């Protein structure tokens, strides 16, 4: 019999389920925010979908999350916002109002949307 390479036959299949958790927070500006200033909103100043006050802004999962900021219903550029997760007096959203544009008027709605993805994988190996 001729020499031959002996090796294992292994088959594997991995299934990954990615579940998004979308959380929205709402705020209505109380005063004008002039161009060139920063609007900072504390966690406790936001309210939830059900109208209840927010106690804590959620952490962003590393490499599995993002946040969006809408002012007057319009999605804003990412580099204008700084998101800090945490409880009241720690968690906040800081929004830089561009100096070369218009300010934000009192009574304007601000919506913060935080999306975290939770991946879960299973692998079946057959030999």
UniProtKB/TrEMBL annotation:
Lineage, highest ranks first: Bacteria, Bacillati, Bacillota, Bacilli, Bacillales
Designated name of the protein: DUF4183 domain-containing protein
InterPro entries: DUF4183
Organism superkingdom: Bacteria
Sequence ranges assigned to domain DUF4183 in this UniProt record: 38-114
Record organism: Cytobacillus eiseniae
């Amino acid at each position: 019999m001729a020499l031959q390479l002996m090796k294992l036959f292994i088959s594997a299949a991995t299934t990954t389920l990615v579940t998004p958790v979308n959380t929205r927070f709402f705020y209505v500006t109380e005063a004008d925010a002039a161009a060139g200033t920063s609007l900072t909103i504390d966690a406790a100043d936001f309210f939830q979908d059900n109208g209840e006050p927010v106690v804590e802004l959620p952490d962003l999962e590393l490499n599995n999350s993002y946040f969006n900021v809408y002012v007057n219903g319009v999605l804003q550029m990412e580099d204008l916002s700084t998101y800090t997760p945490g409880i009241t007096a720690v968690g906040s959203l800081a929004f830089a109002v561009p100096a070369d544009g218009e300010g934000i008027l009192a009574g304007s709605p601000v919506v913060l949307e935080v999306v975290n993805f939770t991946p879960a994988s299973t692998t079946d190996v057959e030999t």
